[in-house]
Amino acid sequence: MARFDALVVGAGPAGSTAARELAAAGARVLVVDRATFPRYKACGGGIPLRTERLLPFPIDSVVEDSVHLLDVSLRGRHRFVKDSGQPFAHMVMRDRFDHLLLSHAERAGAVFRPGTTVRAFTGGEGVRIEAEGGFVAEADFAICADGAHSPVGRMAGLGADIAECAAWEVEVKAPPAALRRYRSRSLIDLGYNPWGYAWLFPKANVLSFGIVLPPDQAGQMKERVRAYTARLGLGDAEVDIARGHKIRFRRGSESIAAGRALLAGDSAGLADEFTEEGIAYAVQSGRLAARNVLRALGGDGALERYQQDVDREIMPELRAARLIGFMFYGMLRRAPRPWMFASGHTTFLWDAFFAVQRGESTYEREAARVPLLPAIARRMLRA
Length: 383
Ligand SMILES: Cc1cc2nc3c(=O)[nH]c(=O)nc-3n(C[C@H](O)[C@H](O)[C@H](O)COP(=O)(O)OP(=O)(O)OC[C@H]3O[C@@H](n4cnc5c(N)ncnc54)[C@H](O)[C@@H]3O)c2cc1C
Prior knowledge:
By secondary structure, the chain is an alpha/beta fold. It has 3 domains: 2-43 and 94-162 and 250-313, FAD/NAD(P)-binding domain; 66-90 and 165-246, Polyamine Oxidase, Chain A, domain 2, CATH 3.90.660; 318-382, no CATH class. 36% of the residues lie in helices and 28% in strands. The protein contains 13 helices and 18 strands. The protein has helices at residues 13-24, 49-53, 94-108, 151-155, 176-181, 221-231, 279-297, 304-313, 315-334, 336-344, 348-357, 363-368, 373-382; strands spanning 2-9, 29-32, 46-48, 63-67, 69-74, 77-83, 89-92, 111-113, 118-122, 127-131, 136-144, 163-173, 185-190, 197-202, 207-213, 238-249, 257-258, 261-263. The protein starts with a strand and ends with a helix. The site of flavin-adenine dinucleotide has 38 residues, from helix 1, helix 4, strand 12, strand 16 and helix 7.
C-alpha cells in the first residue's frame, strides 16, 4: 500500500495548488481525483486578474478572451455598459485551466492518480482513503479539496453545516456573428428575487452562460435558463453542455479543520456572495492548506491553525463581499429601475468593482469606505 506525507482529494484549483506547494517544499504528495484530466467543470471560467496574480506561472496558454466591458441589464432591459479601460478578467475553459494547474503540481513532484473515486475516509494516527476498485492509500495528513458536494470532507466530519446556493451552466456552440458580438464583453443580467444573476462569458469557440439562484429556486433553474437563452437570441444554438452545480458559502466559524484533515476551496465554502466566484479563494486556501500541512509535518502539532489562517486571511474578504451583495441585491429588489438608473450613472461603484477584479483593491477596503454598509445591508435583509 502506498504511503505519503499528504493526500489531496480533488485536483481542482484548490487541490492542485496545495499539491504544487507541498511537493515544491519536498513533501511526498498523492493527488487523487475521480475524473481523468482534462475534465469538464460547471463554471463560467471567469478568471479576474486578482486570481491570475495568485499563480506563480503564466496562464496565457489557456486564456480564450480577456474582457474589459461589463454589460449590465435588468431582465434584458435598462441596459448599461461599463468600460474598465483595460482587461479586468480573463476567460478560460475550466478543463484546460485546471489541467494547467495540475500539470504544475506534477512538475513540482506531486503524484497524480486519475479515475480514483474516494469512497471511504478514516482518520486517527494518520489518514487512510479507500477508492473504488480497491485502491488504498495512507498519509500523515489529508486535504479534502473535493468541491462543493465534498463527499470526502463529510466523511471526515467537516463542513456539513455550510450554506449553499444553486447554479446552472450552459455552453453553446455559437455562430461566428454571436461570438464576435460578445468578444471582450461579459454580460450580467439582474432582476432575480430575492437575489441572483445570469451571466454570459465569451470563449474562443463557445459562449458560456448560466444563472445562480438561492437553493430553494433550483427547481426553476431550467426554465430561467431557457428564458435567458431566448433573450440572448441563442435559442437555436447547439448546446454543448448544460449542467447544474452547487456553490457553498462559509458564513461564520464552521469547522474546516480537525485532527489530520482539512477542507480547501469549495469544500470549505470559500466563494463570495456578491459575484459567486470561488477560484481565487480556492487557490488562496490551497496555499494556506499547504503551509499548515508543512508546519504540521515539521512537528508543529495539529491542523486547527489552518482554520485560524482562513479566518484571518480569507473570511474578512468573504464577509465584505457578502455585505456588498446584500446591499446591491437588496436595493435592486426594493427599487429595481431607480437602482439600475442610479448605478448606471455612477462611476465609483464600477471603478471599485473593476479595481477589486484587477487585484488593485479588495472588497474589504471598498466596504470600509461606506461606514453605513453593515446597517444598510441589515436593513435590506429585513426588507
Ligand atoms: C455554474 C458555476 C459558475 C461559476 N463561475 C465561476 C467563475 O466564473 N469564476 C470563479 O472564480 N468561480 C466560479 N465558480 C466557482 C468555481 O467553479 C469554484 O469555486 C472552484 O471550482 C472551486 O475549486 P475547487 O478546487 O475547490 O473545487 P473543484 O474545482 O470543484 O474540484 C473538486 C474536484 O474534486 C473531485 N472529487 C469530488 N469528489 C471526489 C471523490 N469522491 N473522489 C475523488 N475526487 C473527487 C472532482 O472530480 C473535482 O475535480 C462557478 C461555480 C459554478 C457552479
